[in-house]
Amino acid sequence: MTAESAPNEPRESGSSGDGRPSWESILRLAGLIVVLPVMVWLAFNVRLPSLDMLRGQIEAFGWWSWLAFVGAYAVVALTPIPVTLMALTGGVLFGIIEGSILSVLGSMLGSMGGYWIARGLGRETVLRLLGSRRATIENRLGSAGFEGVFMLRVMPGLPYWPVNYGAGALGVRSRMFATASAIASIPGQVSLVAIGAFAARPGLTAGIVVVVSWAIVIALTIWAWRAWKGTSSRPLPGAGSMSPPSGD
Q1: Model confidence over 190-224: pLDDT tens digits?
Q2: Number of domains in the chain
Q3: What are the percentages of helix, strand and coil residues in the chain, rounded to 5?
Q4: What is the pLDDT of residue 180?
Q5: Residue 78 parent element (H or E)
Q6: What is the rounded CA–CA span in Å between residue 191 and residue 186?
């Protein structure tokens, strides 16, 4: 664990002074008993509606459709349900610019929500919840907070929720997590939104944005990997703003 992330690492309080389990450990165990079945059920039983159906449901809110979209995106980002369809819907409904802004906002709200839920549940509780993704998250986030979050967030194909919950469980500082997540999520969100916009209204501009944004995603993934391994000669975007911790 780096000096930046260690001071705020959640501690597990296993027992009280007389050897009996503390109320804190009992509440965290209860949280695991509640959250784990819910997450498993969501992963295997809940599927987002089709793109056309989701589009119709959000458009039904009229002027408030942007707020409904952001709220729905945030809720999905809290769960194991993939967020890809939400970003595509953003492009179909709102176009590249507005869709990208709303998608990043929704993903960040959900990401921060998952982060703080994990901080409340505690390290061991959340790491059990991560299941097969536990080793990956611990390996990437346990030794390099900002670089680890940035790499996991920008890397194509990795769901958001294990990164959100893992960062909270492993004590990554909230400011560090928010900064790395916000910067790293932008190119990925733009690339997906642009695909949705291109599908709805094919055109040269949308096609160029798709190609350029995916090129940026790939370049940032390589850069983030090298930064995490300590072989990059330049810090990642936003890394320079991370000063020594003085508390969240």
Answers
A1: 999 999 999 888 889 889 999 999 999 999 999 99
A2: 1
A3: 75, 0, 25
A4: 92
A5: none
A6: 9
